[in-house]
Amino acid sequence: MTQLRLNPAIDVQAYARTYAANKVVQIPNLFEPEIAEALERVLLGAPWKLLCQNEFGENILLSQEQLKIMRPEARKELEDGIRERAARNLGYTYYAYPMIEALKRGDNREHPIHALTMFLNSPEFVAFARALISDPRVTKIDAHASNYQRGHYLTRHVDDGAQKERRAAYTIGFSRNWQPDWGGLLAFLDDNLDFKRAYIPRFNTLTVFDGLMPHTVTSVSSFAPNGRISVAGWFRDDPL
Fold first, then answer.
1. Residue 125, domain extent
2. Degrees, nearest 5: CA angle 214-173-138
């Protein structure tokens, strides 16, 4: 795995001023090209699991092997339930890799995705996060990888956290040449549930925002040719 570092050309103070004014900021070219391309390869090769909810609203993770052997009637019941809950603005469905939990458990020990998890919690990146949102309380960076395929979505919500520990939300896009018609937009909503602004998931671009602003990821279109790949999570201030 290539040695990870932030693009040294980033002017964090300029982006911090944008975040302070708008509570959302995008930083293109987060990594230098060689590093971004290496991370793209790592993420495309992640051991993805389907993240969704059961009939009780509880999160479940289903491996590729579990999906392959699922009986047709069980698969239909799962998919019908996903659509029904989505229509009621409940939940989310996409392929995921829980980066923090996997590292703690020792899953897939040799997979290079763990290098990215550790980098996001390195002194360099934590200091960058603190400076970007002007909050010295940030202690750690939560992270999970996501792969939205056709029909996948994240319904509208806010990110407050169980203990109000989330200081900001973020996503790092790894989708090349994404088009707005393909869906998968990170969209922010006003009080009337109209879009205030929306962003396509650009490659090698960091988006940081106040998670208390209502937001959603729109469903990926049936004609999107590729998956929407990203790493997302929160800048947190709970104890290490």
1. 12-45+98-236
2. 65
